Amino acid sequence: MDGYEQGRGAGPPGPRTGIAALSPPYQVAAALVLAVVVLVSCVHLAMVFLHVAPANTVSKQHGAAVDDWVYPEFEQNWKLFAPNPLQQNIAVEARAQFRTADGGVRHTEWHGLSAQDGAAIDGNLLPSHTQQNQLRRAWDYYTSTHDTKDRPNGMRGELSAEYLRRIAVLRIGREEAGEPADGLLRVQLRSVTTNVQPPSWSGEKLDPKPVIRLLPWWNVTSQDLEVRDR
Amino acid sequence: MNRLRLPAAGLSRGIGRITSTALGPYQTAVIRIGFSATWLLFLLRELPNRHELYGPQGPWSWELAQRLIADNQAFTVLTWTDSRLWFECVYGLAIVSSALLMLGWRTRTMSVLFLVGALSVLNRSVFVGDGGDNVIHLMAMYLVLTRCGQVWSLDARRAARTARARGGGFPEQEHETAELDFDRVGPVLWWLLGLALSLVTLLGQLSWGWSLIFWTIWAVHGLWWYLGRRAPGSELRALCDVATNLLHNAALFVIMAEACLIYATAGWYKIQGNRWQDGTAVYYPLHLDYFSPWPALSQWLSTHGTAIMLITYGTVIVQVAFPFTLFNRRVKNVLLAAMMVEHAVIAVLLGLPFFSLAMIAADAVFLPTTFLRRIGKRAARARSALTARTRGVPEQRGGTATGQDEAYGTGAPQPVPSEAEPPPSSPPEADVTPRP
Predict the structure, then answer these.
(1) How many domains does chain B have?
(2) Could you report the per-residue pLDDT of B86-96, keeping only the tens digit for each?
(3) CB-CB: which of B246, B269, B353 is closest to A83?
(4) Is residue B232 one of the residues assigned to a domain?
(5) What is the Cα–Cα distance from B435 to A125, expressed in whole angstroms?
(6) CA–CA separation, A28 vs A34, rounded Å?
(7) Per the domain annotation, does B127 fall within a domain?
(8) Containing domain of residue B173, as a range?
(9) Please, which residues 159-198 of chain A have a Cβ atom closer than 8 Å to chain B?
(10) Does ipTM exceed 0.90?
């Protein structure tokens, strides 16, 4: 009982614990578990490392294996404001075409959707994902899955366009609350990209003129009109 | 002096340690509380916006999500049906499970439900997420494998009470053994979840891989209960204990490595950017409309070129250096404090509260045990002072109204009091940081 008094882990004469306390057949099983756990942990960390590291000799050779392991649940991206922070403000704007009561067509002004997000974030201790991420990342998603002529790169590209259109329909619906919702015929989006001017002490100067990217008019489907935020 | 021992002896000592104890009980408890609290606060923050972000009729509609999920095979229960009621239930489950995981009530079960809730919501709409969501997503999976309820949990409190009621000395490491005679909730929960899992499996909603994972976890929980009740002293039970300790320790190691990977990636990529090199990088996010909630403050800060450069360089230095400082406890602690402060500043200055909170929670896995225990004691003292004041008299419970009883007998998660400390696993002053 001396060992007991000393408590576990108090010194060499203490009771044997862990793997040492087991009889040989159980020790073999425990050793097997140990081997599997160590192996899987090491492989996992190696895979995640290759996933976050720049493309290199090993990851080029075993890219498929790394992707199989990491996607979908262990995907990660930690290039936080790296290699360089974004140095442009990308403002997404939208306008719409409504059918009027007399059977004509009315075009709305450009609505600054990003500007609304920015205003909602100002003075906000807890910005919502709807204000900070939704439109910003939807636009990233669209531009990364479309070429400059707005051709999608496949299924993901199509999804991104539909997503962006539904965001536009939702937000224009809020802006044009006076219009009957089913009168919304088409929407159009554009981005106005402005350089953030380098700090005064750097002596650099960038072109202050904004660059505009205009997307084509998109027809609004009946499914789009069902989009809700409540 | 240990370093002079033969490597073989060191190895066998190491194996003995990782098979006999679940290391870092306070560190795993603090990240459990940190991640679940972050996720809980996020869900509550987005409660008014939940439909717009994750609901079947939001901009990222159920149909769009389903097409993407069919392609990438990510796990989410929200694509099973486009019913609004189902969505509300899942969102509710995510809230409840994160609250209960934070409190450490049925920690093992709640960690699994937390995983289901977090992955379902996050994978449902990946395009509204940011780095913070990514951290929660990963850690929800790793937490399932850790014994994160050993301290500062309702489970630990209950286990200690039961152990005392039996007149035993040490509370058990896990709650299962100690409370079996009285416990009804555990088995009921287990049967209910088994039923739910059967239903889901029969309906064919789960992929092969996830079925295997959930059924294995369910079976293991059942086995634990059975062994604890019928054969608490058996060797099979001891083997299970060894296996569980191994899993816990491996998961804890992976969590730490993951945190290092985050900082290393963030730091090493920054070094390659010319804005981080010329010392102006921090200026730019302060001028992005999406990351400047306090334009006046940003303006003021960006008139101080030298300060901007120092912060820019400091950020890179800290991020790149952090993984290496783990080999020196004192330097590590200084850097840890610096990173936590920086994240707190980012939370406010860039308007990224949940990302920052998740990162602070991840950092907390490296906090020293002594520090965590001091915090725990202080919290317990503050709590009992508060209850004493509100109720007039200290709460009496059980037979012995000792100070120790007070530490346990009042509501929220409490540190295990001195009698039970240290948990058999960790020498009191130990830090879980790997040492050379």
Answers:
(1) 1
(2) 999 999 999 99
(3) B269
(4) yes
(5) 40
(6) 10
(7) yes
(8) 18-259
(9) 159, 162-163, 166-167, 170, 196, 198
(10) yes
